[in-house]
Amino acid sequence: MSQEIRQLEPQALWNKFADLNAVPRPSKKEERVIAFMKEFGENLGLETCVDEVGNVIIKKPATPGMENRTTVVMQSHLDMVHQKNNETHFDFDAQGIQMYVDGDWVRANGTTLGADNGIGVATIMAVLESKNIPHPAIEALFTIDEETGMTGAMGLKGGLLSGGILLNLDTEEDNEIGVGCAGGIDVTAKRTYDEEETPEFKVGYCINVKGLQGGHSGMQIHEGLGNANKIMNRILFDGFENYGLRISEIDGGSLRNAIPRESTAIVAIDAVHEDAFLLDMAMLGNIIKKELKTMEPDLKIEVSKCKTPKQIMDLGVQEGFTRAMYAALNGVYRMSADIPDLVETSNNIARVIVKGGTIQVECLTRSSVESAKIDLANTLRATFELTGCEVEFSGDYPGWTPNMDSAILKVMSDLYETLNGEKPHVAACHAGLECGILGTHYPDMDMISFGPNIKGAHSPDERAQISSVQKYWKFVLEILKHIPEN
């Protein structure tokens, strides 16, 4: 399959993407891709180093005649989100991504593709390896762990880079030039509870919510996609209110930055209510599917009999938990008053685990306004503390404030219009880019973000548009040619 990818244009970029995707690179487990990138730089005879947290820096001198131009930092992250369909058998820790061409798109077989941010990494690799691309001095910065904490960007030390311009290649719309992004904070609610022996008159049922699209919890949070954890809680709440449903286990969602696609619960209900319960669940399932039919046509809500669980959640705790889950905001909290159509503040209820006397709910709260981010985080904190949870804030990272007077923004806007006959969309995004963090280490660096069309990031529907990658590659080459003088 990779051979088909390697024949695509521009071959220099797609070949590097195929090489990269052969290397397993989950967040927090980047040892192999760090070694791969270090070997790549050293084999080219370029100055290469790995810093104390695992970021890889490769430096390439300017091509002849470009020595007086400003040094450019080209930056992308090495890790990728690992998501797969339930029926897909795939070991992300051992296997390379299996890609194929589908018309104008490159996709993966039942898993995330890794175009986020592998296309950016491959772009930089192609430039570093090239012998005929004019460019100023380049400092390639490959960060780690962007997807689950941005610890690579946070751990980068000042003084390692000398570039005056940073090109972040992690935007997913090819007509967009990014000048700002949201910051984020992880909100985790935990508590323990007593388990009760399941009464003999109860029977077990398994409830599955699946078939949702999922997606990027920043870029797609406003699209009205279904959240498996919220849907599951709605079902559990209804079942308890009407049929005394009791919860034994819940396992919903996966990563904080992915809108949850699936959730499974094991419950117990009174045997005398079985027929009425199944009828009600079918009716409620149809109502929810009708509500979401436009965005989630493949949603499935399945209720099937299973072995009766031995233990169930304490009744008082269950009542408080399901009410807190209902009350906790998921989705858009506020739109920006200053930038049209930009989500300012949002929350993703990403992961819910209930098992063995422990509850854990994981959220990712984002905002381009620092005070609003903390306000929403405190709203969630109060919601879960009211039901006896301890709430922890972690992974706090800053947003990136737009600089509309940026010199490289003017250069890139003019180049884009010349190449494409239309003005680019200059915008801030609701995703968490590393520019805000990198700017704290290098406050004088002029930063911009751009990239090709990538759809469905953070889900098995992730795909990269071939024609858009070609358009983007031409843009990259022109930008490097037109970097201003020092």
Quick summary:
It catalyses: Hydrolysis of dipeptides, preferentially hydrophobic dipeptides including prolyl amino acids. 31% of the residues lie in helices and 29% in strands.
Strand content: 25-35%
| Percent helix range | 25-40%
- The total count of helices amounts to 12
CATH level-four homologous superfamily name of the largest domain: Zn peptidases
* Rg on CA atoms, Å: 24 Å
Task: Summarize the biggest pleated sheet.
Answer: 9 strands, antiparallel
Q: How would you sum up the global shape?
A: elongated
The secondary structure category is alpha+beta
Number of domains: 2
The CATH topology annotation of the largest domain reads as Aminopeptidase
Specify the CATH class of the largest domain. Answer: Alpha Beta
Overall mean pLDDT score? 96
Question: How widely separated are the two ends?
Answer: 44 Å
- Tell me how many strands there are: 25
Which regions have little confidence, pLDDT < 50, spanning 5+ residues? none
CATH architecture of the largest domain: 3-Layer(aba) Sandwich
List keywords for this structure.
single chain; 486 residues; alpha+beta; Aminopeptidase; 2 domains; nine-stranded antiparallel sheet; 25 strands; Cytosol non-specific dipeptidase; zinc; Peptidase_M20_dimer
Can you describe what's shown?
It catalyses: Hydrolysis of dipeptides, preferentially hydrophobic dipeptides including prolyl amino acids. Its EC number is 3.4.13.18. One of its GO terms (biological process) is proteolysis. This is Cytosol non-specific dipeptidase. The chain is an alpha+beta fold and 486 residues long. The protein is built from 12 helices and 25 strands. Strands 9, 11, 13, 15, 16, 18, 19, 20 and 21 form a 9-stranded antiparallel β-sheet that branches. α6 runs antiparallel to α7. The relative contact order is 0.18.
